[in-house]
Write a structure and sequence with these properties.
Length: 258
Amino acid sequence: MTQPGLTDDWEAGTFPPSSSDANNTVRTEQLRALAERIGMPIENYGLLNRALTHASVSADTAERALDYESLEFLGDAVLGLAIAHRLYERIPDRTPGEYSRIRAGVVNRRCLAQIARRLDIASAIRLGKGEELAGGRQRTSLLADCLEAMIGALYLDRGWTAALEFVARVFEPELDRELASDRIWDFKSRLQNYCQGRRLPLPVFTIVQSEGPDHRKQFEVEVSLGGKPAGRGRGLSKKEAEQNAARAALAREGFDIG
């Protein structure tokens, strides 16, 4: 009986000609176990097999084994949209520039590889002997590519909702971290983007007071919007005081600053 999502020739990928049906079954079970462990509701294990197959496999086979590269292209687009969707749900009051900057902090090879390692997908990746010997299984770029390809495979097999839910869940820790960092340290950029979005002059920050010894000096900064005072902040550096002044101005403008 044919298993869900599989055909005899694994529509989306091939095994080496030397592989037996028994080996195909072992691979299927390996992929099924991986999908269950990471909570990926994929049914077409042929697509998942392709998402985890590096181009170097073809060098060791008499036939071309379909690799992950085209699925990676698709998965990159799906991932970007999913993170944008999640950002809009969580912080609907930002500018396009802010959204793009926060997304870039999550959708990058270092972050993707970190998630791939947390999901422990490396053992399921098919590599050619040369790539294996070169340490490809733990290479940051390869792990990131495979994770994107897996997202592309899930999107093709189960559609947008399944892909969005998977991305939202596995990327949530990184998204939380990025948003926390953004809330704490990037009030000045948020205020500048707010002004640019409303075609206002950029905010002007002025030191109104500094006190204390040089090694422990405290600064007080006032920020003005359109020539009018909009908020004040204090800090142990000019940068910190500016951030706190910008935070006060954003709060006055009705932003949720956490």
